[in-house]
C-alpha cells in the first residue's frame, strides 16, 4: 500500500470517528405513498453525513464504517437520530429503517429494540419496518431466519429492499416471508417504455397479491413511470417525482395526489366498462337477416355460398320472429325426399320460434349463465340480441365463451386467494356503487375477535381454516345477489338491504358461534378459553373466537373514506362487548 493511499485511508477513518463521536448524522425522510389514493403510508429514514464531508452520501459512509469495523456504532447512531427526529412529530406514520442483515443478529442490535428502549421514544413496534437489502450477503441464513421470526413475533415488520437488484432475492423472499417488497429503482427507471420491465413488475405484483405482501416501487422520477405503476396495480411508491427526501415532513404535492386519484378513477371506470359490467351489446354483431317468406331452397343456397354462417335470424318489421340454423336446416332437408318436400316452402314453416333472445343491456355473465341452461340440442345456437324488442344483432357461443373467460380472469385476479372473495379494488367499486343507488342499503364490517391470540397458539394453518370457514358462512348466510368482500386478514365486508340487516347479523353470529368450537382442542373446550401471549409478550387468558359486526347506513352524502371512518368507530364500541355482537348506526 503506498503512502498516499495510507494517508487517504487515515483521513477517512478520522472523518468517520469524528462523525461518530460528535454525532454528526442528519436524518432526512422520504414518503412512501399509496398509489391508490396518494395518502402517505410511511417514511423511509435516510441518514446523511456532514455536507462538507467525503462521507456525506450513505453508500460511502456505510462502506467506510464496514471497512474500519465501525458498522454497529454507525447503525446505532443513525437509528437513534432517526427515532429522535421521527417521534418528535405527533403522527402515526410507519418508519422504514435500513438495516444490514448481519447486524440484526448482533446482541447489541437486539438490545436496541427492547421494550424499554422503544418506550423511551413511545414507539409501537408495529410502526417499525426493518428494510433488509437483498444484495447484502447473509453469513448464516438459518440463524438469520430465526432472528427475523423473533422480530416478527414482537410485531415488527420486515421489508426486502432493492428486490430485483441481485440474484438471490427470490430465495430470500421465500425464506423470510416479508411484509413488504421494495422494487429496485433500476426496474422502475423508464418502465413506461420497457415492456420487459412491465412484465417483470406485473409478475411480482401478482405474487405480492397472492401472498398478501405489499409492493413498493422505489425511485419514481417521472409522471409516466408513476402512471404505468398505477396501471399495473403496484400498491405503494416513492421517489423524487413524488417527493425528495427532506428533514421535515411536508405534505404530498396536490398535483401528485391529483394524478394518483385521477388515474385510479380512470382505471376503475375502464375496468367497470370494459369487463366486469359489460353488456351483451359490446360483443353483438349485426349479421344478415332473412324474411319469413324466403324459400327454404334460397336459404340452402345462402348456406352453401358462405361456409362460416351458423344460421340466420328471421325478422319481420324489425322484430325477430324465429331462427334457422345450418344444422336444423340440414336435418330437415336430408334424406330421400327431404329437399323436395321443403325446397319451395317459406322458411317460416321450418324456423324455430322458441329461440333465445336477450335485451342489449343484459350483462354478459347473466346471458352466459342462461345460455348454458338451454336444452342440449340448442346449447351451441347463436343468441339474438334486441333493443326495445327490435333486432339488434347476434352473439355466437364462441364469442360469448371467450368474453366470459376474460371476465373470469379479471374477476379472479381481484379475488382474495384464501377466501376467494372479492378484494379491495372490487370492494371500493361496490361501495361507490352502493352510495349512488336509490335503494337503502347497509354496509356490514365483520371483524373476528381474539384472532391473533388463536393464530399464535394454534398456528397460521388453523387460522387460515377459520378464515375460510367464516367466508363460507358469509356465502351461505348472505344471499348471492348481495355483495361480500374480504378486506384482508380477519376483516370482511357485505352490502345488504337495510330491511334485512338485523336478521342477517343474527344469522351470521349464530352460525359462526356454532361452527368455531370445532377449531379448538378438547382441553381448551373444557376450560372455555385459551392461554396465549398478548402483544406485550405476557401470558394471558383469551376467550374463544367471536365476531363483531359494525353496520353503517349507506348515506348518499358520505364518501367511501367517511363510511370506513364511521365503521371503525362503531366496531370499536362493538368489540368492547363480550362475545359475538353487532351494532348498527
Core attributes:
single chain; five-stranded mixed β-sheet; 585 residues; eight-stranded mixed β-barrel; elongated; alpha/beta; 20% strand
Explain the layout of strands and helices.
Layout: H1 3-21, E1 26-34, E2 40-48, H2 58-67, H3 71-86, E3 94-99, H4 107-111, H5 115-120, E4 128-133, H6 141-153, E5 157-163, H7 169-176, E6 180-183, H8 185-188, H9 195-211, E7 214-217, H10 223-232, E8 236-237, H11 254-276, E9 289-290, H12 296-305, E10 311-316, E11 319-325, H13 326-333, H14 338-342, E12 357-359, H15 364-371, E13 383-387, E14 390-395, H16 397-413, H17 424-436, E15 441-449, H18 451-458, H19 460-477, E16 483-488, E17 491-497, H20 501-516, H21 522-527, E18 530-533, E19 539-542, E20 546-553, H22 560-575, E21 581-584
Parallel strand pairs: 2-3, 3-4, 4-5, 5-6, 6-7, 7-8, 9-10, 12-13, 20-21
Antiparallel strand pairs: 1-2, 1-8, 10-11, 13-14, 15-17, 15-20, 16-17, 18-19
Helix pairs in contact: 2-3, 10-11, 15-16, 18-19, 19-20
Amino acid at each position: 500500500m503506498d503512502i498516499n493511499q495510507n494517508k487517504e485511508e487515515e483521513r477517512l477513518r478520522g472523518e468517520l470517528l469524528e462523525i461518530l463521536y460528535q454525532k454528526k448524522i442528519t436524518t432526512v425522510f422520504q414518503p412512501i405513498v399509496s398509489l391508490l389514493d396518494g395518502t402517505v403510508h410511511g417514511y423511509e429514514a435516510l441518514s446523511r453525513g456532514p455536507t462538507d464531508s467525503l462521507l456525506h452520501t450513505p453508500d460511502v459512509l456505510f462502506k467506510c464504517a464496514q471497512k474500519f469495523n465501525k458498522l454497529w456504532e454507525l447503525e446505532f447512531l443513525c437509528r437513534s437520530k432517526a427515532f429522535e427526529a421521527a417521534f418528535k412529530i405527533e403522527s402515526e406514520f410507519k418508519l422504514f429503517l435500513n438495516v444490514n442483515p448481519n447486524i440484526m443478529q448482533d446482541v447489541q442490535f437486539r438490545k436496541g429494540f427492547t421494550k424499554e428502549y422503544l418506550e423511551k421514544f413511545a414507539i409501537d413496534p408495529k410502526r417499525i419496518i426493518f428494510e433488509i437489502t437483498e444484495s447484502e450477503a447473509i453469513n448464516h441464513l438459518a440463524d438469520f431466519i430465526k432472528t427475523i421470526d423473533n422480530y416478527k413475533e414482537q410485531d415488527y415488520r420486515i421489508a426486502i429492499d432493492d428486490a430485483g437488484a441481485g440474484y438471490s432475492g427470490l430465495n430470500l423472499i421465500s425464506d423470510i416471508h416479508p411484509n413488504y417488497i421494495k422494487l429496485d429503482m433500476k426496474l422502475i427507471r423508464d418502465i413506461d417504455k420497457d415492456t420487459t420491465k412491465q412484465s417483470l413488475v406485473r409478475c411480482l405484483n401478482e405474487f405480492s397479491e397472492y401472498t398478501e405482501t405489499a409492493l413498493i416501487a422505489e425511485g419514481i422520477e417521472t409522471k409516466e413511470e408513476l402512471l404505468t405503476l398505477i396501471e399495473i396495480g403496484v400498491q405503494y411508491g416513492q421517489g423524487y417525482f413524488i417527493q425528495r427526501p427532506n428533514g421535515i415532513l411536508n405534505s404530498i404535492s396536490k398535483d401528485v395526489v391529483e394524478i394518483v386519484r385521477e388515474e385510479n378513477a380512470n382505471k376503475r371506470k375502464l375496468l367497470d366498462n370494459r369487463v366486469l359490467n359489460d353488456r351483451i351489446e359490446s360483443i353483438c354483431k349485426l349479421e344478415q337477416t332473412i324474411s319469413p317468406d324466403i324459400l327454404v331452397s334460397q336459404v340452402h343456397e345462402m348456406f352453401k355460398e358462405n361456409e362460416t354462417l351458423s344460421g340466420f335470424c328471421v325478422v319481420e318489421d324489425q322484430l325477430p320472429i324465429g331462427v334457422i340454423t345450418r344444422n336444423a336446416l340440414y336435418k330437415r332437408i336430408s334424406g330421400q325426399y327431404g329437399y323436395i318436400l321443403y325446397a319451395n316452402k317459406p322458411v317460416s314453416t321450418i324456423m324455430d320460434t322458441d329461440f333465445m333472445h336477450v335485451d342489449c343491456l343484459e350483462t354478459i355473465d347473466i346471458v352466459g349463465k342462461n345460455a348454458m341452461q338451454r336444452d342440449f340440442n340448442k346449447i351451441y345456437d347463436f343468441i339474438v340480441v334486441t333493443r326495445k324488442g327490435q333486432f339488434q344483432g347476434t352473439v355466437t357461443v364462441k364469442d360469448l365463451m371467450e368474453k366470459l373467460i376474460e371476465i373470469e380472469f379479471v374477476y379472479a385476479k381481484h379475488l382474495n386467494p384464501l377466501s376467494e372473495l372479492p378484494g379491495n379494488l372490487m370492494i371500493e367499486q361496490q361501495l361507490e356503487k352502493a352510495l349512488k343507488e336509490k335503494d337503502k342499503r347497509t354496509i356490514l364490517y365483520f371483524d373476528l375477535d381474539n384472532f391473533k391470540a388463536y393464530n399464535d397458539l394454534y398456528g397460521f394453518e388453523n387460522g387460515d381454516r377459520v378464515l375460510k370457514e367464516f367466508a363460507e358462512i358469509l356465502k351461505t348466510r348472505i344471499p348471492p345477489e348481495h355483495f361480500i368482500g374480504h378486506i384482508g386478514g380477519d376483516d370482511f365486508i357485505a352490502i345488504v338491504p337495510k330491511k334485512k340487516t338485523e336478521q342477517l347479523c343474527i344469522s351470521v353470529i349464530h352460525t359462526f358461534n356454532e361452527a368455531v368450537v370445532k377449531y379448538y382442542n378438547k382441553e381448551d373446550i373444557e376450560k372455555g378459553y385459551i392461554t396465549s401471549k398478548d402483544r406485550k409478550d405476557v401470558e394471558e387468558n383469551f376467550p374463544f373466537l367471536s365476531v363483531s359486526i359494525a353496520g353503517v347506513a349507506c348515506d348518499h352524502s358520505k364518501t367511501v373514506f367517511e363510511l370506513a371512518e364511521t365503521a371503525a368507530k362503531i366496531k370499536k364500541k362493538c368489540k368492547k362487548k363480550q362475545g359475538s355482537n353487532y351494532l348498527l348506526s
